[in-house]
Write a structure and sequence with these properties.
This protein is of the alpha+beta class. The chain has 2 domains: 53-140 and 154-189 and 375-450 and 461-555, no CATH class; 207-369, Alpha-Beta Plaits (2-Layer Sandwich), CATH 3.30.70. It is 60% helix and 12% strand. The chain is built from 20 helices and 14 strands. The chain has a 5-stranded antiparallel β-sheet with strand order 5-4-6-3-7. The protein has a 5-stranded antiparallel β-sheet with strand order 10-9-11-8-12. Strands 1-2 form a two-stranded antiparallel sheet. Helix 4 (83-107) packs antiparallel against helix 17 and helix 6 (126-136) packs parallel to helix 20 (527-555). The chain is elongated.
Length: 557
Amino acid sequence: MSFLANPVIALFLSMALGYFIGRLRVGPIQLGGICGTLLVALALGQFGVRVSSDLKETAFALFIYALGFSAGPQFFANIRGGWRYGIFSVIEVICALLLVAAAIVIFHLDIGTASGLFAGSATESAVVGTASEAISHLSLPQAAIEELQGNIATAYSLTYLFGLIGIVVFVTQIAPLILGIDLKQEAQALARKLGSPEDVGDQPEGLPLLVGRAFCAGSVAGQTVGDVERSRNWSIAIEGVHRGSDVVEALPELVVEPRDILFIRGRRNAVISVRDLFGDEVPVPDGASITLVSRDVVLSRKEVFGRQIRDLRRLASPELHRGVFVSNVRRLGQQIPALSGAVLQQGDVLTLYGPEKAVERAAIELGNPLPATHKTDFTYLGIGIVVGLLIGHLSLELGAMRLTLGSGGGALISGLVFGWLNMRNPSRGGFPLPAAEFAKDIGLAAFIAAIGLEAGPHAIKLIMQYGLILPILGLLVSVVPAAVSLYVGSRLVKVDPPILLGIIAGQHCSTPTISTLVSQAGSSIPVIGYTVTYAISNVLLPLMGPIIVGVAAALAP
């Protein structure tokens, strides 16, 4: 087993076995790859293997910068206009800090254990990094610092599982019972409220949102193409007219003749609802297909921030929006329902679908079309991380206290700003979503593995010292902020239940919770609330690392 003393082998073995363990599922509960990696690393750490601190810091800087870069556009948008939902992220932070502070006083937790309790119960792995860095700046012997950093990893691993179980079970099982709702029925009702008769129905979400059909002219003969589309509030588009042996361009002023065959495209329910308006449905004639394209565009036009999707047609002229549909909306990598009543935010990625020229015109009007390249701009990436590390070296002296963001906080802030700048001009600073996700995953996994390997020798001592106290505390610190948010959201702020449950999952940055919630709701409606608090909590929680270290240093015996 001497090969396990090789730090490179131990690092990658921790990730390999950790992610395998993390995939194991018990009901809706999965440990996830990061917690699995930490558990394996703690075990391998018993062999005394150590990983270079430079590698650990590099991995964390890459992770935290990529985290900020991905969240940047939505974070700034939600700070300006999402306070109604953003308050729940503040509730999460305040409640967790107060509960951990109480635990420090009652159970005499040391600085590292308190920080690990905060990180694990909030299931926010980034706190492990920011708190570890803050501890490294304490005026303590190096051996004491390493022991406290090891306690962070051990406490995190002991509380993460119970924090995860607590938030998943509370949000998906207990909260609906407290509210007295059927989650699936509530989600369907809210979808009808946010949508319209033309785009909301009882069909499963898996069916295509946009469809095309061919109909005989029927009762619309004698009307112009523009009049027919306007009568249906532009929920359908006549994309071509088969007349005789030719396909005629469907200009708005074109008058429909009785023998014409019309090519109709639109939202599924809109097309179904207009069948009686036309004549018989017929197969699309050979050679009469219309070329359609999809384009992704980053929403950056200020006039449409906070507007509903249906408002896009009201704000644009018919010549601009004719035949163009929003087929998909992506926010922070999550798909949200492209219903007509869905509210748009700065940085949303809209997928436009329709004839090529019309889509290109609409994309330019709405924002910045995403470039076709999927390559990362390493110049932009490198400069961004360097700027973040330099910001992290800045400090402010307040009496005997030295306040600093540290390299983790600096890289996070830099990532937020550079991500926002990239949203403004996607042609520069490319960091495609899959690349950013990989950077986050590999950076955090390598950092957590290094922490676990280093903490291994201290793990048994901490487990023997606290026993079941830490898992129980992890459960409480996870569930209590969620319960407070449930009360505030349902009684005071009056948020619709499916969105409120998504908000609570987001304030906890819990991807397993939102995945289970969406499955139980049979709809992606809860994601609307999730993305707002997820963006804000993903920034606030990591920044709490130095805060919890300061609180613990002041309260710890």
